[in-house]
Amino acid sequence: MLDPRGNPASTRSAAAINASERGLWRMMSFYGTPVADLDEAIAADPQWLLPRLMKAGFLLSLTEPSLVPEAQTLLDSADPLIAHANHRERDHLSALQTLASGDWQLACDEWQGVLQHHPRDAFALQCAHLFDFYRGDATQLRGRAQRALSHWDESEPLRPYVLGHLAFGLEECGQYAEAEDIGRQALAGEAKVPWAIHAVAHVMEMQGRFAEGSGWMAQWAPDWAEGNGFASHLGWHHALFALESLDHAAALHLFDDFLRADPAQITLNRVDAASLLWRLHLLGVDVGRRWQALAAGWQLSAGDAGFYAFNDLHALLALLGDGQIARAEAWERQVQAGAERSSGNNRETHRSLGAPLMRGMLAFAQGRFDEAVQHLGDVSGASQRFGGSHAQRDVIAQTLLAAAIRGSDSSVARRLLAERQRLKPGTPLTEHWTRQLGLRQASR
Ligand SMILES: [Fe+2]
User: What pTM, to 2 d.p., does this model score?
Assistant: First the structure.
């Protein structure tokens, strides 16, 4: 059979196709989780490999080391089904095996191979886009969707989600006007596309349009704030706009609505929680017991350390924010050991970026500001490869600026501040840092 976009599917069950399509829509829209739909597809045709692969891909896409064994079990169970699978499905299996082994870059390359033959393979686009994002690969975030879209008919129901990919990729490449235009196109129809809302929010964040951004998030709240797996991250974006205007109370209110520690919270949401609290901490805001709750709920085991440098750094921030310096130092050693044991891309990412960033944050938390400037400054120019978005990595830039203002060499602080003034001129947050530097210089 063919799926609705004309991709060959090795099943004769329309029920299985329909259920897998619902799962795919959930993966791209983040409404609910696709697990129940994919289980339904597996039950409808137990011989069809692809729904099992989609389930494994979804589990791996959460960047939780604890979910890798379940994903690996699904991939291992594929063996008896391979004989029934077509070329495209076997290529997906290979990409997912590569992903599960930790080589995220090669997995993305393998998905690109799938897309060369099947540019309307939405599962390949979705997986590669997320792992381009996790790897901080702006060029591919933009390029994969750009190359594929010419093959997508305007009437395809999933096309707005691919436009959302393109909008975010354009934004990460600094093409703000095009990103906003494509993002708004993605939202022009009936489809709820949180990823496109997100892409436009990123544009506004990067351009310091905080009041407009806050209005944007409120305007589109019906399409992201309820029942959506991306709501925490979008709530975090809404809070960033509040933070840019120095409305700390609003930022904390949004934290409580979208990021407050919950035992079921996934790590990606804890990452955003740590990132927001750390930014408030840099501003000297009292966040009450939120650090304690965040650190207490984050199950950090030595076995999971070193899986993904981006998440590991934010876990360190949670411990530092909670004042657990000794535990943070122990976590840094565990991450180091875990990354060295790993065979995937994360070993090199940790060595070149994660390790100095962790040392810089540890130094900052202990008041060794010149040392923090040295470690954070050494890698800030290359931090894109650390993963995540520009807006997420701004926590590094803001810590570096705060350290430089408090350190002994104010020329570094002036240079960093000039860069922030160029990017976000006149925002209350930029003015805050300008005042802080002035006060520091006056006291010398
Ligand atoms: Fe974002």
Answer: 0.96
